[in-house]
Amino acid sequence: MEGMPLSMGSLRTLPWYVAGSQVLGVACVVITGVWMGHYRGGYAWDGSAQFNNHPLCMVLGLVFLYGDAVLVYRVFRNETKRSVKILHALLHMMALVISIVGLVAVFDFHSSAKISHMYSLHSWCGMLTFVLFVLQWLLGLGFFLFPWASAQLRSWYLPLHVFFGLLLLAMSVGSCLLGITEKLLFSIMESYIMFTGEGVLANTLGLLLVCFGVVVGYVVTREDFRRPPNPEEEALSVHFKTLSEGEIPSSP
């Protein structure tokens, strides 16, 4: 609108992007659940159905919940930074726990079925993503939630934390795409080219995963959507750091 600052006008679109990301994320989880539940025999913790817990847990944990953890600093713009940090860490922890369940499920299934572990590109990329995710979470706890590092060191690490956060989301989506393709080729190789219902559903899941990652990445990288600085929090931070370390911290 005429006379309205560009940033204020842009902020009006933020809820729509966030809502769109949640619709896409929930759709990914639901479609994964339907795929494994309807086409692949349901869910169990033994037998052939044990594997089906793996894709559902990884999409829920390392894509949807992780993507939401990345978004919290854009969604909760006016809450205290400490509260947002705690929510950010808790969502990461939930994603971690659910992902561990998914990894245990696939390793147990492979062991029971006498299938080799970690032989495919999907498994290599997925494990690398998981290891880096754990490392990112631990470093985030140490640098920001329970800060032991100096303000200068935190300011140096913050851009790396943001960059690897988005990179890990992209790696998670990419690993899922590799897993979808691998599962389809193992399960319906002969009929895949005939546009069977299972193949179309899985392909749709892949496209939705990409769309979810793109929307989250766009929201996080758009400058207009950044969390505004809180003068009171900055003043308290400066005062504390001046008293404790004799230095003035830079704002993250």
Automatic annotation (TrEMBL):
It comes from the Eukaryota. The keyword Membrane applies. One of its GO terms (molecular function) is transmembrane ascorbate ferrireductase activity. Coiled coil: none annotated. The chain crosses the membrane at residues 14-36, 56-76, 88-107, 127-146, 158-180, 200-220. GO terms for cellular component: chromaffin granule membrane; lysosomal membrane. Keywords: Cytoplasmic vesicle, Electron transport, Heme, Iron, Membrane, Metal-binding, Translocase, Transmembrane, Transmembrane helix, Transport. Homodimer. Transmembrane reductase that uses ascorbate as an electron donor in the cytoplasm and transfers electrons across membranes to reduce monodehydro-L-ascorbate radical in the lumen of secretory vesicles. It is therefore involved the regeneration and homeostasis within secretory vesicles of ascorbate which in turn provides reducing equivalents needed to support the activity of intravesicular enzymes. This is Transmembrane ascorbate-dependent reductase CYB561. It comes from Cyprinus carpio (Common carp). The gene is LOC109105107.
